[in-house]
Protein 1
Amino acid sequence: MPEFFKVMSVDEVKEKIREWFGHLKPEGERVPIEDGLDRVLFEDVISPENLPGFDRSAVDGYALKAEDTFGASEAMPALLEVIGEIGMGQVPAMCLGSGQAAGISTGGMLPEGADSVVMIEDTDLLGDKTLNIYKAVSPGENVIRRDEDIKKGETLLKKGHRLRPQDIGALAGVGITRVDVSRRPRVVIISTGDELVEPAAVPRIGQIRDINSYTLSGLVQQYGGEPLRFGIIQDTYNALFEAVEKGIAEGDMVVISGGSSVGTRDVTGRVIGDLGSPGVLVHGVSVKPGKPTIIASAGGKPVLGLPGHPVSAMVIFGIFGREIINLKLGYRGGSLKVKAVMGRNIASSAGREDYIRISLIENHGQLTAIPVLGKSGLISTMVKARGTVKIPACKEGIREGEPVDVEIF
Amino acid sequence: MPEFFKVMSVDEVKEKIREWFGHLKPEGERVPIEDGLDRVLFEDVISPENLPGFDRSAVDGYALKAEDTFGASEAMPALLEVIGEIGMGQVPAMCLGSGQAAGISTGGMLPEGADSVVMIEDTDLLGDKTLNIYKAVSPGENVIRRDEDIKKGETLLKKGHRLRPQDIGALAGVGITRVDVSRRPRVVIISTGDELVEPAAVPRIGQIRDINSYTLSGLVQQYGGEPLRFGIIQDTYNALFEAVEKGIAEGDMVVISGGSSVGTRDVTGRVIGDLGSPGVLVHGVSVKPGKPTIIASAGGKPVLGLPGHPVSAMVIFGIFGREIINLKLGYRGGSLKVKAVMGRNIASSAGREDYIRISLIENHGQLTAIPVLGKSGLISTMVKARGTVKIPACKEGIREGEPVDVEIF
């Protein structure tokens, strides 16, 4: 690899990613709303209708004119005439005049002439028709107005929003049964390294099974992409070049999880460098773990060269891979970090972002982050960890008791 | 419904659910690990192997005997003879004697006789064979021991754990390619109410589209179950009874989201009461929203009668439905709540748990929860909300600035 690449900071790289890959636009696909959970909206959703579409009772009781109840109290009830009962899902047949009321259930449509509903608990029916009302209601009370839930023409949901159960319910509510979401970005995952074998194989001594293809596939799924596992590619220039070229043709992005040997790194670096213009954009990031990260662009598609250590590969993909997936999804939301306090002093070198694996302990509602120590080659440290805490480049560590944001892994 | 049911507290009901439905045991099914993300482990996973299985270098450098470097420094380097280079994925051909070293890459296997690795940065190779070492290493330094990542026979993952990307990677690493997970609980979802129509239909005035079937399906998926939407069932005893009976036969649990009218509630209540012993267990919970909740057991299968209001149905299913799904999954983990401070005073009646919809604002790393006001009949309030905050029964409200736990919805 050329030697003139300057090691960049994480924030510089993130900013550059948005610049270099800003052309990665979401592509829409229409899905039934029942398949829409966790998908990202491709377009704003404008409501085609009012919801509920008619004035609707929010309680069980009697529809009436509020003015007929003014001054009503336990001691001096208002007296109204009940002229009928409103059926659910029906347009009321009656029109209320002064001094009249109609029985109504929660969700029932208000009859013409009514402007409010008195709760059944605040009334007494004497015989069939005479209603005592013990509490005054104001106009609009206990009524869901025709456009109170959702207004026709309002922006119900914004593009870039990830659909939750309630969003899908709201779409159903206004009659939208299919929705345009961003196509899942296809992320090609390649593992390389002569020491690697497939998980189903029995490794000979000196060999090791491919872990990164599986951790990275899982992260791609979590971030809303579709993993395309190419498996283990032989550690030669030709084999790797061919695989990456195929990956660029089939995927929106290619991730190569480097074997950890010098030789493999060299081959990976050369292949990425030879994919064409503009080529390698980043070679080396001031972050731990994950310094030897490579980011390139081949025909406008991102190629990410990750370190071979399982922890490094996950952490780096969680920063840069996720950023690229979000671009292609058009995802506008952030990831919610969990607040905790650091349980121990932890040192870090200034000038480098450190990602510390941590477990979480809850005590009296307070979450404490405890560092999980161990080499970044140990997948078990990520299994024991609940997330990571970032130590910014400008800090030389975090003291016990300091508040921290935990990225859940 | 019989009148003798006592309104129970949320915690009482939760405890009772574990008692009444403690017989709901997870059922295992074997899936390929690549389909395992977010599934809950049916059994402990014991590692069949050591990982990495051999002593492995954690860095690029030279394998050697640590004692040969004792006292080495910039001023007084140790001098060793390089007797070869270790190929990746190979069993080293050499055996190191005193004063000897072998080139090794990250991930390479240590040769016999070596107990540590010196980093390449701390050495100088003079000619082909003479190695200057400027820094002493201790035994084991820069080596991942044969069982340092995962030990043969250790419990790698516990039953009841939800699989994350790193867990799947660790399974791959020890050669486990298929894993036993809990079958997804099948949750039958029934909507009833004469005012309801399917989302694809054009409602007549007075009618409204079915929202709850869709919000509840989404929650079931989020909680790890499989929704079986039975759609809108006519609001008659016979139609509903038949649907619920079919639901009990086909599902692990039946959820009826009641139409909101008195008539529908009565029919739902009678049907649930007639399903057989032990029948209705809870009728009324001191919670807002969601007081008219019904929980029954039909042949040991839970039947949950939810209020018709979209917000109430979601909140109540999020409490009790999730609890039952977790039982059937054997899920042991909790849900991580997000810490925030309340942004406004909010009142609540003592003796009743209140669930307040809130949005979240982030400011200088501090999350503030702002109540989203509005009737529980408005799905739009859940769309605007980011989660809920619980006000316990013993409290009469939460003051501005008080810390709260947010359940993300």
Protein 2
Amino acid sequence: MDLVAEDLSACNTLIVERMHSHVALIPQLAAHIVAAGGKRLRPLLTLAASRLCGYEGVRHVSLAACVEFIHTATLLHDDVVDESELRRGQASANALFGNKPSVLVGDFLFARAFQLMIEDKSLETLRILAAASATLAEGEVLQLITQNDLSTTEAQYLEVIEGKTAALFAAATRLGAVVADRPQAEAEALDAYGHNLGIAFQLVDDALDYSAEQASLGKTVGDDFREGKMTLPVLLAFHDGDTAEQAFWRRTLEEGEQGEADLGEAQRLLERHNGIGRTIDRAETYGEAAIRALDIFPANEAKLALIDVVRFCIDRAR
Amino acid sequence: MDLVAEDLSACNTLIVERMHSHVALIPQLAAHIVAAGGKRLRPLLTLAASRLCGYEGVRHVSLAACVEFIHTATLLHDDVVDESELRRGQASANALFGNKPSVLVGDFLFARAFQLMIEDKSLETLRILAAASATLAEGEVLQLITQNDLSTTEAQYLEVIEGKTAALFAAATRLGAVVADRPQAEAEALDAYGHNLGIAFQLVDDALDYSAEQASLGKTVGDDFREGKMTLPVLLAFHDGDTAEQAFWRRTLEEGEQGEADLGEAQRLLERHNGIGRTIDRAETYGEAAIRALDIFPANEAKLALIDVVRFCIDRAR
């Protein structure tokens, strides 16, 4: 997105600057995640949404950095593993540093995010990001509760991804209207855009985690399977499966008994019931809703960029 | 402290109210810690400091709740255990719920704290609590770095406890002057009071962790020893120890090789070098500095209450 390339570069500089601490392990560990983060999707959304609203100041750069800090803190806390997972020999995500540093550096980044928000001196932006942070934590807890539980409903799954992903996307885009001091209708349109995009993004992520093509590209697949996460592809295949198939899902996902061939078998069952294809179809529906939410804005470069983000998110899966 | 009994009761009500979530595990787990927290020392400090400054509104109640939420989030994150500790079979703190729920519910409480702060609509109180949160995380990371490392200096130890304990104490008391809109000198006096009290409090805590009397009262001792935490009693005894004693500390604290009789041996070595007594002497010095910091305030019930807190913290060890 050339439109916001300069802003994004300023945002990156700010992120590196603000993750500094005299406690050297903090920038070391944070750099590991922040650098690996790569695509900077969430801050990019704040930057583009601000442009869409005609904003010409600099506040959007630090708000975009706040959004990325909150996301990074979440990634670090997602890396924490539980005793049960360790027992199954699956501790690898935070193998480099261990549980405790991941937690504490995440806390530091979260506190830094709030310090940066406070510098923006707007209670409204603070409210939006604090509420998104609380919803995000609720979504993560709900995900934990539904883990290993095949009685999870589609509605519960949707609630999980609305919390863990869509809430921060919606906050990131809503901020654009808020910094530009635009009317409520535009803030709500951008919120709806971010919310629907976030759901589409997570649906695609959940589909890709079982994708054979991803595996052929050298990307990790099967993380959700190993963790017993209840994602839409599995819920669909489980629901439509016969008795033997349902027993397979129960053994592997509920009881956590997995052998080497099981991920392949899971992929075959998803294929049989078109679990991935149907998940991506849903993602497209949400993506269309995201694009429609932008209807109230005039066509311009920023709007095209935000539409491109939706296409990019969904095309990952095609 | 009768003076603030009503305020503290209002604060407790607010805490229970605001830790609510439709995700039932959150209030369940939070209640477990919040209820166990018991003494509510930090919010009590905010309440008493506000009274000392002649404040008569209600803002101090919600700020006190924010302070307690931040503290509770820290406790939950402190419960997270690392693979190495698990390997030594020492995972018990969060045995009831596991690592991940502790992390995520802590995140939720931290976000809730900020939501509550934002309702206070003061950028100044937000700044104080966000800065304390960042310093707290830095102190915790520094503690992790010095763990199992007997080359830790007293200055480094002091920096750890200033971060992990004194920063939030200082913020809690400084808030009293800020809500009451008192001059900078009073804010700084209350900050100095909280800072010195926090150090004294942590020194006593670190002494009690090796105290035979505590053990006889049925309280847990030896947690710091098992975790290889570098606390002042140990640093003093190690520094003054002979070759055989230093080898003992290296084996048990640096290499983590501990047998059943080792805590007893550690206690004998601390006794020989008066490690506990000298730590408590230091605590008294900080306690006196805390009391002196209150000199600029006129004598009244609130001031006596804050002086009592210092005495209470130190008398735990006598």
